[in-house]
Amino acid sequence: MTTTDAAWQPSELELARRATRRRQSTRSVLIALASTVVFVGVVGYAIVSSPGWEDVRRSFFDIDIALAAFPSVLAGLWVNIQVLLVAALAVAVIGTLLAVMRSLRGPVFFPLRALATVYTDLFRGMPLLIVLYLVGFGIPALGIFGRVPVVLWGTIAIVLTYSAYVAEVLRAGMEAVHPSQRIAARSLGLSHAQTLRIVVIPQGVRKVVPALMNDFVSMQKDVGLISVLGAVDAVRAAQIQVAATYNFTPYIVAGLLFVAMSLPMIRLTDWVSARLARREQTGGVV
Question: Using the 8-state DSSP alphabet, how is residue 208 labeled?
């Protein structure tokens, strides 16, 4: 530390500004806290004082039934997590291939571009529930693959649908890379494939990281739809408990577990989005 740094002291004006900012920050926190308490109090009172609250409490918020259903629902959630991990890896690979196919240039690649376009249009437009029915009940009926666990069919249906979404997100990121980057790479002697792998795809992925993470968060909850095929996941386990107790509390348990599973990724998505926004505002590399 130099003598100049050690002797420097903020001016009276700067100290006054800092004190003003601290007072404003404290006042903002207190106002936000008070308004939150008032809002929660009003909404809570409106719900609790409603005529049907006692029936809803008994049907959806029974602590004893929640504790009894928790182990089986948690075991079912492990199935959802396994499906999620496998599907995420498969979606990353297939989505990247589809994005590259749609970005190929030249008339000779028209069949590949057309195939990728038809794929993304089809699976982005079709509801995931219908894809699950078609894959889970239609393909086994063909009798080609023998006996396959329904969890695998559910995973395939999720991969088919989310690959289309991820492919379009990746393609948007690749299209956002400035053409001069491609030209510069080709002028250095890189082939088209090397240009995509070394220059375009890394930059394109960085531009769409928040959107990709949002798709992953969406997939985290949609893995619960495999229960319609009969897989005993968290939702199906809750359904079994509901049928046994005539009470909807197990669904609340399953929903809270899905929220707990998604929260880390949601917070990470917010942090990454804010970090990228700050870097853009400061002129950093995105």
Answer: T
159 alpha carbon, distance to own chain's centre: 14
Would you call 81 exposed, middle or buried from its count of C-beta atoms within 10 A (0-12, 13-18, 19+)?
middle
pLDDT in tens, 196-235: 888 888 888 888 888 888 888 899 889 989 999 988 889 9
Residue 77 CA: distances (Å) to CA of 129, 237, 240, 269: 19, 9, 14, 22
DSSP of 109-175: GHHHHHHHHHHHHHHHHS-HHHHHHIIIIIHHHTTSS-S--HHHHHHHHHHHHHHHHHHHHHHHHHH
Question: Residue 286: its pLDDT value, please?
Answer: 44
- The pTM is what? 0.79
Weakly modelled stretches of the chain, pLDDT under 70: 1-6, 280, 282-286
Which residue bears the tokens 């379009």?
A: 168
Locate 14 and state its tokens: 């700067």
User: In Å, what is the CA distance from 56 to each residue of 67, 249, 252, 261?
Assistant: 18, 10, 12, 26
